[in-house]
């Protein structure tokens, strides 16, 4: 036990492995897309969008690599942390009886949130290129609210699942 929590190794489900592969494919596709578009990018690209979805900050074209780097870092860190769910903080007492269920829920939540964030980062990266080369005028006003509803909805789903069988 670590911090009075059982230490269990929880293997990923096939579904979780597929989502991880999907996330990696998204990252690779983003890198391929940026390499392909690199020669068409102007010297200045958007590096920030305001709440209305308008480009509010511009930087050198190398800044276009920031989001894929964040995606790779995020994928790596979260994938590593998913292997040790017993170090997570849980809002309920973790016991020998509920540890496996809680750890599986936490692992599944991490896999889903990771994929959702990576998809949003890919979309934002793609939109940045589109705005840079004049194909689009901005990110749009609905993208961030939709992303937040999806992300917070997923968190709420897994949070409710966490308490469903807790006694």
What is the compact description of this entry?
The protein has about 170 residues and is mainly α. It contains four helices and two strands. Strands 1-2 form a two-stranded antiparallel sheet.
Overview features:
mainly alpha; 4 helices; two-stranded antiparallel sheet; 167 residues; 2 strands
SSE layout:
Layout: H1 14-37, E1 44-49, E2 55-60, H2 66-81, H3 99-132, H4 143-164
Antiparallel strand pairs: 1-2
Helix pairs in contact: 1-2, 1-3, 2-3, 3-4
Q: Give the rounded overall mean pLDDT.
A: 89
Provide the succession of SSEs.
HEEHHH
Strand content: 5-15%
Based on secondary structure, the structural category is mainly alpha
Q: Low-confidence stretches at least 5 residues in length (pLDDT < 50)?
A: none
Gyration radius from CA atoms, angstroms: 19 Å
Number of domains: 1
Total strands: 2
Choose one word for the global shape: elongated
Task: State the separation between the terminal residues, measured CA to CA.
Answer: 21 Å
**Biggest β-sheet description:** 2 strands, antiparallel
The DSSP helix count reads 4
User: What is the strand arrangement across the widest sheet?
Assistant: 1-2
Query: What percent of the residues sit in helical stretches (DSSP H or I)?
Result: 55-70%
InterPro entries: DUF1648
Keywords: Membrane, Transmembrane, Transmembrane helix
Pfam families: DUF1648 (PF07853)
Domain DUF1648: 25-71
């Amino acid at each position: 036990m670590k911090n009075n929590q059982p230490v269990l190794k929880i293997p990923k489900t096939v579904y979780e492995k597929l989502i991880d592969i999907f996330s990696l494919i998204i990252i690779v596709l983003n890198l391929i897309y940026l390499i392909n578009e690199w020669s068409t990018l102007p010297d200045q690209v958007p590096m920030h969008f305001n709440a209305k979805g308008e480009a509010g900050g511009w930087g050198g074209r190398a800044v276009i690599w920031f989001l894929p780097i964040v995606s790779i870092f995020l994928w790596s860190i979260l994938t590593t942390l998913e292997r040790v769910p017993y170090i997570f903080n849980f809002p309920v007492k973790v016991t020998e009886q509920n540890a496996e269920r809680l750890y599986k829920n936490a692992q599944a939540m991490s896999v889903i949130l990771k994929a959702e964030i990576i998809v949003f980062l890919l979309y934002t990266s793609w939109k940045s290129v589109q705005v840079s080369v004049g194909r689009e005028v901005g990110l749009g006003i609905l993208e961030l609210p939709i992303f937040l509803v999806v992300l917070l909805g997923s968190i709420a789903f897994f949070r409710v699942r966490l308490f469903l069988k807790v006694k």
